[in-house]
């Protein structure tokens, strides 16, 4: 399984970006895709996740109401729409896959990771 994240860039505070994550292979029935981020000098943290079959979504409290995770089932692609970006959203964003559909907020529950895409929000 390979995941490819893209869409990062430089944006002003208050602006928007959309990240994409394309993965290979056939997802299992409990498959989920998550987004995590890591700012310099910090640990990687959960941002959002989506159950591939049901479309159920999960968010961290810091992004709820500003970020939206979605997927196009037939294209094996997940998106993270990020609105009203803040300087504290600056980080490398990673997408990852979870075969069991559980523990979606935990980094250790994910099996495969993409390479990361940098988001920089200027104030």
Molecular structure report:
By secondary structure, this protein is mostly beta strands. Helices cover 0% and strands 49% of the residues. The chain is built from no helices and 11 strands. The strands form 2 sheets. Strands 2, 4, 5, 6, 9, 10 and 11 form a 7-stranded mixed β-sheet that branches. The protein has a 4-stranded antiparallel β-sheet with strand order 1-3-8-7, with no helix packed on it. β7 and β8 (77-82) form a beta hairpin. The protein is globular and about 40 Å long. It starts with a strand and ends with a strand. The model has no long low-confidence stretch (mean pLDDT 96).
Question: What's the layout of helices and strands?
Answer:
Layout: E1 3-6, E2 9-12, E3 17-23, E4 32-38, E5 45-51, E6 57-59, E7 67-72, E8 77-82, E9 91-98, E10 112-113, E11 117-122
Parallel strand pairs: 2-11
Antiparallel strand pairs: 1-3, 3-8, 4-5, 4-9, 5-6, 7-8, 9-10, 9-11
What keywords describe this structure?
mainly beta; 49% strand; 123 residues; globular; 4-stranded antiparallel beta sheet; single chain; 7-stranded mixed beta sheet
Overview in brief:
With 123 residues, the chain is an all-beta fold. It is built from no helices and 11 strands. Strand 5 (45-51) and strand 6 (57-59) form a beta hairpin.
* Backbone structural class: mainly beta
Task: Count the DSSP helices.
Answer: 0
In sequence order, what are the helices and strands, one letter per element? Answer: EEEEEEEEEEE
Query: Shape from CA axes?
Result: globular
